[in-house]
Structures are given as structure tokens and as C-alpha cells.
Amino acid sequence: MAVYTHLSADDLEMLIGEYDVGVLVSAKGIAEGVSNSNWLVETTTGRFILTMYEHRVEAADLPFFLGLLDHLSAKGSPVPRTIHDRAGAPFRLIDGKAVALIEFLPGVSIDTPRPGQARAVGEALAGIHLAAADFPGRRENTMALPAWRKLLDDCGDRLSEIDGSLSDLVARELDYLEASWPGDLPRSVIHADLFPDNVLMLGNRVSGLIDFYFACTDIMAYDLAVTHAAWSFTGDDGFRPAIGEALVAGYHQRRPLTSEACQALPILARGAAMRFLASRAYDWLHTPADALVTRKDPMVFARRLAFYEEHGKTVFRPPAG
Amino acid sequence: MAVYTHLSADDLEMLIGEYDVGVLVSAKGIAEGVSNSNWLVETTTGRFILTMYEHRVEAADLPFFLGLLDHLSAKGSPVPRTIHDRAGAPFRLIDGKAVALIEFLPGVSIDTPRPGQARAVGEALAGIHLAAADFPGRRENTMALPAWRKLLDDCGDRLSEIDGSLSDLVARELDYLEASWPGDLPRSVIHADLFPDNVLMLGNRVSGLIDFYFACTDIMAYDLAVTHAAWSFTGDDGFRPAIGEALVAGYHQRRPLTSEACQALPILARGAAMRFLASRAYDWLHTPADALVTRKDPMVFARRLAFYEEHGKTVFRPPAG
Question: ipTM score here?
Fold first, then answer.
């Protein structure tokens, strides 16, 4: 949540001049993105998000990410398109760092969704899965099951510094997931990180799906499980069944799940919870307590994992629609 | 440079509903303000800055600050007006914290001004001094000479932790300033903190003067001296005479300085440099190195103070215009 790089007015004016978007009118650094810097830029022709890729996202992946935005947007998905520069390039370099100019979309992120909103999010997620079907790009999911094992192995005995019960839960669940993970469910390009702050809404309508920097080729129903794990719990981890049901129902209505995918939702949700537990536990133990980033509590997803372990089969009843 | 408080979409919608500004369309936390949280808010009728006053600014001072914006704006100064709520209040409370909705102004902040831009800034500063002449509000300058002495006394021997030469410079200059500070120069409400990041420009035009949260009743020429100390040096403290001259000339053209004020500029500039040296040195020694705020280097203003001590009389030749 920061702007890591200073861009002067001259830098910004010169950059905007490389695009056919009019003249710079305003630029405000915005408090979004964990590893990128972002500015809300206004020109004489419109508003845009300017993103500077600081760390994690490799320039080698940008053609995939930015091409995906263009593909989905062209198909009518509520996804910001990439503005290409006058030479047609989707991104440019400033002092060796890649920057991209991206369409600004209206809407606000929802903390406490209503069922009608959750249903719309499920529909929108199915929509991007369908729209991505003929996208030619492919990208491996670098945060799939082998990565969870590796991240948690790297934490080792230090997991007990987070919570005494964590090692047992992790060992038991990793073994289960590795033994039982479904390999043959339908795949597409998935978002893989559709938390509420990556969805913009206007009332009950999804006006924007953003931050595709974990997008990859993987099981579509796993993306729904990630979204379920991210949306269906209150701040203190109470399960909100109406939200989970609305997400799945909205998804299923737009893109019917196969019965195999439906049956796999409980294990996919355990995997989704494990994925965020793994990255958060790793970051928790490897980020100095006084660092400039806010560490996210891994135990939130440990509790959701335990919830899915105990209740997953009853939570994911096959949708009626 | 952060957003300290989370406002949910529901919070924001409810708040915006209290104003006659249409329906919420977008809200982005912006990386501006040291002690306040700020959002760039878009509604169906326009764009606004929403400010939440977190710490330093006391609610008791808000009628002064916000009333000043309205007064200056009504007189045609490039200052954002305060949007009043449906009941006419200039600010509201959310969970005990004051929030205000303020007009959005276009423009970008300049790092490296050109003389034509500095001249426009001098003119704009004179313009708010003139426009403030009949503003009924008064506010003591809580960062005037007695405060510099107090802040630096509180640093005590620890000044040497910053730099070995600092104690001597501070002792010598504080004695000089206390003995010679001019008491009888023309006063008005002044901005008192017009650094480049508090000025928005479109080309050579000043489109916005913002962040009036140090505004107070004090010597007008001191405000020009503050602006001179803030604008006329490069990042590595090279003096830029053409910028300083353009600032003073632009000011003088719009509001001619008295000969007493002209003669006082060297000491006022030493005071201005001391004011920022004092607050930065205090913050440097009282902010943990691992805090979430970036400490500003006090030595920048120690060097500018030493520069004005040595060269002030030749720098501030009486303007020709």
C-alpha cells in the first residue's frame, strides 16, 4: 500500500506524451498494490491507472498479464484494457522499470458483501473463465501445490512461533492435498487472487475485476474456491453461508460446473485456504516486524482451512440452478 | 504518505449521501498528507478530495482552515473550496474523527521549477495574502520563533547525533533571530508551508495551492521567505538564484513589498530555514528509525540556514519591478 518510486512532473509528462491520450492534467499516487506503485492519472481525454512494476512481477510475464487484460476487455469482461503507446507497445521502461498505462474503471471495493453482490461476483468470475477460453497465452501457476509445500517447508519449526497448532494442521493437510488433489478438471486462465479488494462494484453490478498479477493456467473451479475462501467469512472468521452459496450459484448459472468439479469444491477450497496460509506464514516469518509493509495474519487462513476440513462437504452442496 | 484509516464502501456511500454531490462512483486512497488520510473520490457529479484528520490538526482549528479555503476560493484564488454537507456543516465526524470533502483541483506538483513557474508561484502567494486581508479568522503561528527554541532545546545534546556542527549553528542563529526578529512588518493569514508538493501547476500556471494546515496569522514577507527556502535549492542544496529571484519578483509584482520587508528578507529566510530545521531535527530524534513514516533530513535546512547566514544579504537584492 504505497508508492515506492517518485516520478517527477517532467517524468510523467514525458511518459504520457508517448501515448495518444491527450495532455497530463493530474497524477496522484494511490495506496493500492503491494509490490507495485500506482498513480491515478488524469489527462485531457480521460482517466487511467499508471502502474510501475517494482519487484515481483517479472517483465517477462507482462505480455501475458497485459495481453490477458486486452483479450478479456475486448470480449466484454469488466476488465481494464491496456493503453498501448504510439508505437503499439503495451508497456514501456522508465529507469529500467516497466510501466503500463491501464484503463480506469469506476466502482468501489466491498468489505461486507450482500448475497446479490456475491452472486454477481460469481457470475463475473465465470465470465472471465469463458472469455479466456480462446486466449492463446499460458502461464504456469507458480503458487500451486508444490509451492505451498516448499514455502511451508522453508518455515520449518518456526511455524510454532505463529501458533502452536499450525505444524500439525499443515502436515496433515499437505499430505491430504498431495494425495487427493484432482488433476483432470477443466482448466482455463484463472484470476487466482479474486479478493474483495480486486473487485470494483457499483451497487450489485461488478464494474471491474483488477490486479491479474497472479493470473495463470489452472483449474477453473479452483478459482471459484479461492473466491469462496476470500469472500465467505467475516472479519473474525464467522462463515457466511449465504455469501458462499450466492458465489457458487452465480458462477454455476453463467458457466455450469461439471459434477466432478462440484464434488471437488471441498478439496479445492482446502487448497485455496492452504495457498494463502502458506504465503502469509512465509511472509510473516520472513518480514521484519518493523518493515514498511503490513504483514497479513496467516491464522485467518489456518482457521478457514480447519473450517473447510470439518465442514467443506456440507458447505458445498451441489447448486440447484 | 499513507491512508491510516480504512473506510468501507458502506462508510463512504453513507458519508457521500450526506452531501449534495451525487452518488459515489469511485474512491481511491491517495499517498498524500503526512498526518491525514486522503481519498480521491468520484461521484456522478464530479471529483473531490476526502480528508480524514487523524492527529495533528485539532478539530478546533478546522473552522479556521476550512473557512479560509472558502474565503480564498470565493475571491478567485486557486484554492479548493470546502464542500458543505446538506445541513451546511463544513466537516463531519466518523467514529470521532473529523472528515471534510474538498474540491478536487487539477495540476501536478513540480520538482524542478523553471523561472516562469517560480514567478507564477510568487504571484499566487501574493494573491492569497491580498485575498486573506478581510478574512475574519485569526490563528496564532504555533511554529513561530518560540517554538523553534523549544523544539531545539528539547533535542538538547542529541543534536550532535545528527551532525557535529549542528549545536553551534543552532545556538548562534537562535540567539541572532531572537535578538533581531522584525516585529512590525505587515501581517495577514499566511500559508506558512508552501513547498512544491503543496502547489499544483499546469504548465506555467498555478492551478492549485493546497494543504493549508499550517496557515496562521503572521508576517506576509515571512511566507515569501518560507517559499524561497523551500523552492530555490536543488536536491543536493545547490542554490538556484534564478528561481529565488523569480519568486520574489512575481510576489512583488502582485503585492509590492515595503522597503522594510525587502530589507528583512535575509533574516526572515534564516528564520524560515530554522523553522524547518527545528521541526525536522525534533522529528529525526523522536521518530524511531523503523517507524512507518520517512524522516526528513534536518541537515538539508541546516545547510540552507548556513547559506542564508553567509549569502542572504546578496541573494535578496531589492526587486527591480
Answer: 0.83
Which residues of chain A neighbour B28 with C-beta distances below 8 Å? 28, 30-32, 40
Half-sphere exposure of A56 (CA within 13 A, CB side): 10
Q: How many Å apart are CA B118 and CA B231, to the nearest integer?
A: 8
Q: Does B290 touch chain A (CB under 8 A)?
A: yes
CATH code of the domain in which B66 resides: 3.30.200.20
When pLDDT is cut at 50, 70 and 90, the band that residue B1 belongs to is very low
Which cell numbers hold the place of A63? 505480455
Residues B164 and B286 occupy one common structural domain: yes
The secondary structure element, H or E, covering residue A231 is: helix A220-231
Range of the domain at B161: 115-315
Question: Pick from A50, A70, A103: which residue ends a domain?
Answer: A103
Same-domain check for residues A83 and A128: no
Which of A7, A13, A26, A54 to probe the B interface (max B CBs under 10 A)? A26
- Could you tell me if A303 and A242 lie in one domain? yes
B139 and B67 assigned to the same domain: no
Least confident of A180-189, B55-64, B109-118: B55-64
Q: Could you tell me if A162 and A242 lie in one domain?
A: yes
B4 domain residue, yes or no: no
User: Distance between CA atoms of A232 and A237, rounded to whole angstroms?
Assistant: 9
Chain B residue numbers touching A8 (CB-CB < 8 A): 110-112
Whole-number Å distance between alpha carbons of A9 and B70: 28
Strands (E), A145-294: 187-190, 199-202, 205-209, 216-219
The one-letter amino acid code at B175 reads D
pTM: 0.88
Which segments in chain A show pLDDT lower than 50?
1, 321
In this prediction, residue B60 has a pLDDT band, given cuts at 50, 70 and 90, of: confident
In this complex, do B40 and A42 lie within 8 Å of one another by their Cβ atoms? Answer: no
| Residue B289 belongs to a domain | yes
Query: Considering its fold, how many domains does chain B have in total?
Result: 2
Q: Around Cβ A190, how many Cβ atoms within 10 Å?
A: 26
Instruction: Judge whether A70 and A103 are in contact, CB under 8 Å.
Output: no
Of the partner residues B1, B104, B112, the one whose CB lies closest to the CB of residue A10:
B112
Contact B28 A30 (CB under 8 A): yes
